[in-house]
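Predict the holo structure. Ligand: adenosine-5'-triphosphate.
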Amino acid sequence: SRPSDRTPAPPHVELAGVTRTFGTTLALAGVDLAVPAGSLTVIVGPSGCGKSTILRMIAGLDAPDSGTLRIAGDDVTARAAGERDVAMVFQDYALFPHMTVEGNISFGLRLQARHHRRSGPGRDEIRARVGEVCALLGLDNLLHRRPAQLSGGQRQRVALARAIVRRPALLLLDEPLSALDPQLRASARAEIRRLHRELGTTLVLVTHDQHEALSMATHLIVMDQGTVAQSGNPGELYRHPCNELVATFLGTPRMNLHDRDGVRIGWRPADGRSATHRDGVPPGAFLVDGVVESCEFTGDGQHARCAGPDGTFVLVQREGESWLEPGDTARVTVPAARLHRFGPDGRRLP
Ligand code: ATP
């Protein structure tokens, strides 16, 4: 294995026992989490689970009721936003509408120059650094436009440029792709991953989209109702979800679940194999019979929703496998190694 697999990176950000209440809403109910240095950490979870509140706390825009927050080993719980080496990109990008692209991107540096005449960046340095990030993000030809004259994807890149031009050690992105259409989202995901590699900074991104989370994260944190449900390598979370919530939240179509003798058996739709009554069932494999209720064509195959003895399940059929129609009977086997078992409390069983 690579050295990075053996020696975990030291945490860049650590939250320990962090709670936050808004009125009667317990937004964070004792959060413990670590963001490995240099990682692209994605915090994902259903709406209202506390993702944005965590990001705002790391940025210093909100404070915990109790618990501690460390950045690069320092306890910054009581430190103001301006005293943390952190930049945040907001969901709506929050660009200044009356300023050009160049003005928006250079704003923070110009402010620094004004406040720290001696140590702040000079005019030439500002121009050079703005030029550098504009080249990195392909904004060279848009410097004199105002935000209203830009597409959604271009606005997002300006917001990113404005954040990274300050060269923060830690970059926070709150739902950075939510304003983009699906096609732009795919290229923006790749862009953010590239940016992360090239900058070498720690990046924390918040999203409610599990696909975005799985495809971008080097470190994934799944939240549920104000606590961390599971964290780790995305592949590990997908293959060994610690409970039913993580199991069904990650992956589409979602994991099928069957109640059998007090145990809940889970399998991912793509792990099922169509079988006939003549086929034998491999040892330890799971077998379920159903009747096809509806089919969805996906281009390279189909998703068949079936009614079984203990509820509905979805089967993924690939090109070349037998084509299913509503009313057909479906027999599915799932290899033992692809089965997940959960106890009555939803926790994964060994
Ligand atoms: P979403 O994906 O919808 O943005 P989220 O996971 O980011 O959700 P948060 O914005 O962190 O969730 O909110 C967590 C909980 O705290 C929610 O129940 C929300 O209604 C509540 N909350 C957040 N900010 C405030 C506030 N300023 N006043 C009152 N309640 C708040």
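The first helix runs from residue 3 to 6. The pocket of adenosine-5'-triphosphate is lined by residues 22-23, 25, 27, 45, 47-53, 208 (CB under 6 Å).
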